[in-house]
UniProtKB/TrEMBL annotation:
Pfam families named among the record's database cross-references: Glyco_transf_9
Keyword Transferase attributed: yes
InterPro entries in UniProt: Glyco_trans_9 (IPR002201), LPS_LOS_Heptosyltrfase (IPR051199)
Annotated keywords: Glycosyltransferase, Transferase
Protein name in the entry: Glycosyltransferase family 9 protein
Lineage of the species this protein comes from: Bacteria, Pseudomonadati, Pseudomonadota, Alphaproteobacteria, Acetobacterales
Species this protein is from: Acetobacter conturbans
Amino acid sequence: MRILFITATRLGDAVISTGLLDYLIHAHPLARFTVVCGPVAAGLFQSMPQLERLIVMTKRRHDLHWLVLWKQCVRTRWDLVIDLRGSATGLLLRSRACRIMRGGRRAGARVAHVANVLSLPSPPMPVVWTDEKDRVDAHEMLGEGRFIAFGPTANWVGKVWPANSFIALWRTLSGVFPDRKLAVFYGPGETERALAAPLLAFPGAVDAGGRFTLAQTAAMLQRCELFVGNDSGLMHLAAAARIPTLGLFGPSRASEYAPAGPFAQWIAAPGPEGHAPIEGLSPVVVAERALAMLAENATEAGL
């Protein structure tokens, strides 16, 4: 059985889609998968089981990337095509079944929209795939200790909680848990590095961003007791890594893009959804929620 799975270009949407992909892997344990994604998200799938081929699709003018993809896939007879990009590609391929997710804004969580492609009664939660080398690398990169992760960056300035607020949050958390270390996660590039710089200036802060693969990043996140960060791909990755994750929302829509996972929560700035400035999110309020999550995690772990 061969399955073609066309997923998102953006990291956050690609992470959300991993729940559906994981469902298909378990439902069809002998299937061979071809996954299509954008360059930013490619690292998510390199360690997934049953992967036969990973196609990294780079956007081209006049939507010519779809023609290139069709040429790469047309010689195969597919048993199932899943297209989360809403294109017509699957309709132009030989396939026994084709399921297409239409675009546009919809009410409800994005993870539920993805599950609706197969009419699943409940949305499967996103996952991350790592191997032993990723986990060994994560231990070497972080070192010994117990870690709290911050994700102070995002792809839009309106979603970025001010650095001074993150600083105030860390001072509160480290005052209650002085043995914890701060691990700062961010994406590649100078812009992301600059947003992370005020937190990296804390004595003992661990630089966990900018230069690692997504699988290494996921493995590092799995060693952390809590992630607090802006609405971003890293937030979704942390939730998929099954660690306590607190997503921070301002003008973006938590009703659609809240982190999805067994230990994921979110908190939004006061005001109407889609219009509330993230600067209005109080460090005191965030600290209260974060401390409650840490306490709950410690209780469950029997610490």
